[in-house]
């Protein structure tokens, strides 16, 4: 009996040894979990969404957990959320990838995150989350209120701009419309710059030219940069300057008087005459005011239909809480002047007919005139005159003369010289042009220049046009102008205007 128990005990020991050997061999050959890629370090702007990705192979029966390293808080184990944060969630692709999602990231989400596998010893990997915040300018202690942004001329103004953001932003000051910033010291030295760095901008001994908008610009590399406008106001009493101290204009005309006013705060402007009578908008006066910049105005006064009583001094005045100022403009009369163009127009209206005379000539003869053949008897050579002294030649006084009327008719017909002419027919006169000047004198037709003498020269060839005694010229004047009468004297016909 004792022997059987001993055999059973040995059998049990052998079985236990086999089991231990089998279990030991299986433990040594089982694959351990491993990470295929590290966690990324992430930077995200506040309010965006972000996620960490953890890839683990050979996970087996182990589990993946997410932990916030700085607080040692367990966020999730496998697919179960532990942290009571609705912005956190877990996803798994069914194989080897786990993701931790953080929506609408806040600044307190920054820190280190750990993906951990519960082996012994524990395996893990970490990634860092940086949350950045765009710059913002605080609205506390507004420096652009009446206390901080206003000073009398010669005083000081201090502007303060506080900005927040992650990382900490830098602050710059610029002037609106790219104007220069004038930085003055107590020694009246000044420096003209385009920008000033720092949260504070101090303007010493401010002048009216320093008025306007100043921009505080905060940036930290996280878009967008932000800016804020501060308005600087400089108070000073009015200063009035007349555009012209003396203005002259003729009666029955309109004239404009101008003044330039510089003042702040906004002044009350007006016009009045020297006797104190205030002027108002109406049929006689037109009053307007134009703002040129923050502290400059242009005042306009138009006086219509001038008469003698309107001449004299006019005063433009300006007043605000700091003082009053005015300027005087003297308006005087002058003779009305007439421009050269107006004089020329009046001359033409007086001396030039509105409708011209038209000269109608008889038709050109169809017969060819017989050429003149001089006699063979040699005549003594004499100096010939061609009407340079205004003396005409009669056809009956020699063989070397020709009929003047026939020559004029033929000459005008050949050159088609028709126009608005007044004809003088008689001794030593040619045609008269539209401006009333004699266009030529002598036995010929005067040139277009209207000179006093120098008619057409006699042709130099030996063939002269033969006279046609049976045909006399008929001058027909079609007067559609405003000529009053036509007078005849001897053989001269004159049109009078």
UniProtKB/TrEMBL annotation:
Any one of the GO CC terms: neuron projection
Q: What is this protein called?
A: Ig-like domain-containing protein
Where does the record locate the signal sequence feature? Answer: 1-31
Ranges of biased composition (kind: Basic residues): 379-390
Q: Does the keyword Cell membrane apply?
A: yes
Please provide the record's keywords in A-Z order. Answer: Cell membrane, Disulfide bond, Glycoprotein, Immunoglobulin domain, Membrane, Repeat, Signal
Q: Do you know which InterPro entries this protein is assigned to?
A: Ig-like_dom, Ig-like_dom_sf, Ig-like_fold, Ig_I-set, Ig_sub, Ig_sub2, Neural/epithelial_adhesion
Any Pfam family: Ig_3
Q: Please list the residue ranges annotated as the Ig-like domain.
A: 33-130, 135-227, 238-332
Localization, UniProt: Cell membrane
The record's region (Disordered) falls at 367-399
